[in-house]
């Protein structure tokens, strides 16, 4: 059939069938997007192929968008969970390496093939490249080809089934992580207080250092029935009513400083407005509120920052990010100027600038090509995946370089991520499927069985350690597991089970560590 020789037709046919099968649930379990790779395996078995360049395009898009999304949380995650993640990566890679050596000697398997089995079981293309370079033999690629199909499928099945087997609710785990994030940024409240403390009467807000002492922000003051926008020079008078925004703890401190809470409202005057303004102006991104000096320039006060669904109490040191929603209290005469300052353009937020995406991927590919030689026998490079991921993480952390924003809207990121993933899974599946039956016929069950053991046993050991000893949240654990296995399809399987981003952050955090460990182990085994 001519259509089956058309790459673009086959690609979208596999995706369409995969989505249909992925939506089928059996006892509450479904494959979701992971079904695409199983459909691709069948197509590959019957001789259908898709150019490998589509796989590389899909992989770079998927990994780059993961890095951009995970970047802001990557460094915080490493500081918080770095020790745990290093332990997991070390346990998985070292146990897989020891099992490989043990089985190779037990069954008299050529070590060149065994190294390939190791990299295939962990689905690591950079590992295979290191194996071929270290051994100088093409036998590694045979071992890789034998172990790779189950390396892909085994991780997907493991991460899909493990939560069911241990009775853990993925949604509850995601909720737990959300609650932990909220503890870092507690809910903000509005309360009004009457100035009763004689020690603060007649003093300015600047003299009292209200923000520094209480961590609450004064947003409105009513003096003798008139509402005013507070400034650092505003003097507090006896019986003034002050509106503050802050956490419960901050407002309790404010009560001690100022006076009793009151239910009396502070009405908005006709020349005063409180408005939500969207940050879409590149010029203000990565600048602090103090640097923008909105209070002095526009007599406007930013009372709250809403970022990624979390309310943040602002200070002069708070850094403005693209897409932030700012609650601004301002006089009506200046509100247009404040809108212009921050952009407030919803269309700009939804637009996707492809220049930073293309530039970031180009830089990632170039970084991945760099090779570091420690000796004649030990050379290290990040490879395509590692280079693109590391560059994306760093660019996302930087946020902005001159006029270039290294960010994407959530919608754009999700679309490119899904597209890249589907392209990647389709090609990987057809490629692996073409060799599946041939592998059994030529190499028999022994090498395939060794590959299964190298894939499953280290995963099981690592997961049990992370779950029961390190007491890790399951989403963090599964993300770290797929990162340690360098398994992009495995991460996709976890992504399909939750809307949380925790697993992607854990994956991005542990992936470079695992890749370095694996390359070191590969080169050590090749010296035996």
UniProtKB/TrEMBL annotation:
GO BP field: potassium ion transport
A GO CC term assigned to this protein in UniProt: plasma membrane
GO molecular function, one term: monoatomic cation transmembrane transporter activity
Statement: the UniProt record of this protein carries the keyword Transmembrane: yes
InterPro entries found in the cross-reference section: AAE_transporter, RCK_C, RCK_C_sf, YidE_YbjL
Protein's cellular compartments: Cell membrane
One Pfam family per UniProt: TrkA_C
Membrane-spanning parts: 6-24, 31-51, 57-75, 87-107, 142-162, 378-395, 415-433, 445-466, 504-525
Domain RCK C-terminal, first and last residues per copy: 177-260, 261-344
Membrane topology type: Multi-pass membrane protein
Superkingdom of source: Bacteria
Assigned keywords, A-Z: Cell membrane, Membrane, Transmembrane, Transmembrane helix, Transport
Keyword Transport among record annotations: yes
NCBIfam families: YidE_YbjL_dupl (TIGR01625)
Protein family per UniProt: Belongs to the AAE transporter (TC 2.A.81) family.
Annotated protein name in UniProt: Transporter
Native source organism of the sequence: Ancylomarina euxinus
Lineage, highest ranks first: Bacteria, Pseudomonadati, Bacteroidota, Bacteroidia, Marinilabiliales
């Amino acid at each position: 059939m001519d259509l089956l020789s058309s790459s673009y037709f086959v690609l979208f046919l596999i995706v369409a069938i995969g989505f249909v099968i992925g939506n089928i649930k059996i006892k509450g379990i479904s494959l979701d997007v992971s079904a695409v790779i199983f459909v691709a395996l069948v197509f590959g078995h019957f001789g259908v192929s898709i150019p490998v360049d589509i796989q590389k395009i899909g992989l770079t898009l998927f990994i780059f968008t993961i890095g951009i999304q995970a970047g802001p949380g990557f460094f915080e995650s490493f500081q918080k969970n770095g020790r745990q993640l290093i332990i997991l990566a070390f346990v998985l890679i070292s146990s897989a390496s020891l099992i490989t050596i043990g089985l190779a000697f037990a069954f008299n398997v050529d070590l060149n093939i065994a190294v390939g089995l190791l990299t295939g079981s962990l689905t690591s293309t950079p590992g295979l490249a290191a194996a071929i370079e270290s051994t100088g033999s093409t036998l590694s690629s045979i071992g890789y080809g034998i172990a790779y199909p189950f390396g892909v499928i085994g991780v997907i099945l493991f991460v899909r089934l493990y939560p069911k087997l241990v009775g853990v609710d993925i949604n509850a785990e995601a909720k737990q992580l959300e609650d932990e994030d909220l503890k870092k940024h507690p809910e903000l409240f509005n309360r009004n207080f009457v100035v009763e403390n004689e020690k603060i009467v007649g003093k300015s807000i600047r003299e009292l250092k209200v923000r520094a002492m209480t961590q609450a922000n004064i947003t409105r003051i009513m003096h003798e029935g008139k509402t005013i926008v507070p400034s650092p020079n505003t003097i507090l008078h006896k019986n003034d009513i002050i509106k503050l925004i802050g956490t419960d703890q901050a407002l309790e401190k404010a009560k001690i400083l100022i006076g009793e809470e009151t239910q009396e409202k502070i009405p908005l005057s006709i020349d005063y407005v409180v408005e939500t303004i969207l940050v879409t102006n590149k010029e203000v991104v990565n600048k602090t509120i103090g640097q923008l000096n909105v209070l002095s320039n526009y007599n406007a006060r930013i009372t709250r920052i809403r970022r990624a669904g979390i309310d943040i109490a602002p200070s002069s040191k708070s850094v403005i990010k693209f897409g932030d929603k700012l609650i601004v209290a301002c006089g009506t005469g200046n509100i247009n100027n404040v809108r212009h300052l921050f952009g407030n353009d919803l269309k700009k937020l939804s637009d996707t600038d492809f220049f930073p995406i293309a530039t970031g991927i180009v830089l990632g590919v170039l970084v991945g090509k760099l090779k570091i030689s420690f000796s004649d026998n030990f050379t290290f490079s990040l490879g395509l995946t590692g280079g693109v991921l590391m560059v994306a993480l760093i660019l996302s952390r930087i946020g902005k370089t001159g006029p270039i924003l290294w960010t994407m809207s959530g919608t754009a990121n999700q679309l490119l991520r899904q597209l890249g993933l589907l392209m990647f899974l389709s090609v990987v599946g057809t490629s692996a499927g073409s060799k599946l039956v041939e592998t059994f016929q030529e190499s028999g069950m022994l090498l395939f069985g060794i590959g299964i053991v190298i894939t499953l046993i280290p995963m099981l050991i690592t997961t049990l350690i992370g779950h029961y000893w390190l007491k890790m949240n399951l989403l963090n654990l599964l993300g770290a597991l797929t990162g340690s296995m360098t398994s992009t399809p495995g991460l996709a399987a976890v992504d399909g089970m939750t809307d949380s981003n925790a697993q992607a952050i854990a994956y991005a955090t542990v992936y470079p560590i695992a890749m370095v460990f694996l390359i070191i182990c590969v080169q050590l085994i090749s010296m035996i």
